[in-house]
Design goal:
Elements: E1 9-13, E2 31-35, E3 39-45, E4 54-59, E5 62-69, E6 88-95, E7 106-110, E8 113-119
Antiparallel strand pairs: 1-6, 2-3, 3-8, 4-5, 5-6, 7-8
């Protein structure tokens, strides 16, 4: 496993703490964040979920990913020998560095991975003329 330090900060990586929340249902999905020539990519491992179990919101320069992985696939009277799959609600909030346009972010969910593409901010290279008013000038 490779841990990389960067300018992207996880503001919070836990369950939202609503009623019934306990330490046993806090889980954090594995997340990769990397840059490309076109912008920033956030890739979150969320196997066993559907689009309607996920929500992505933008708050300033923060990207909030929340959801709930349902636990409806095991037998009622089972006793675990090993339990490594996390279920229940989660929340990850990433602080995105300047230079990326979160308002133009696009998300897709395929084969258990949520991918969010955040393009670079467009810098206007066009020249703009500043109009000059005729008449009285307040400059003396």
């Amino acid at each position: 496993m490779c841990k990389v330090s960067s300018t992207v900060h996880f503001v919070t990586r836990s369950v939202t703490g609503g009623r019934g929340a306990s330490a046993s249902n806090n889980w954090v999905p594995n997340t990769d964040v990397y840059t490309t020539d076109n912008g920033l990519v956030v890739k979150v491992e969320l196997a066993g979920m559907r689009n309607d179990n996920l929500e992505i919101t933008v708050e300033g320069n923060r990207l909030r990913i929340t959801g709930t992985r349902p636990d409806g696939c095991r037998a009622a009277n089972c006793r675990f020998l090993v339990m490594e799959i996390n279920y229940g609600p989660f929340e990850s909030v990433l602080e995105i560095p300047a230079g990326y346009d979160l308002s133009q972010a696009k998300a897709s969910y395929l084969n258990g991975f949520l991918r969010i593409d955040v393009p670079l901010q467009q810098r206007s290279s066009q020249s703009t003329k500043v109009p000059i008013a005729e008449g009285n000038s307040s400059l003396s």
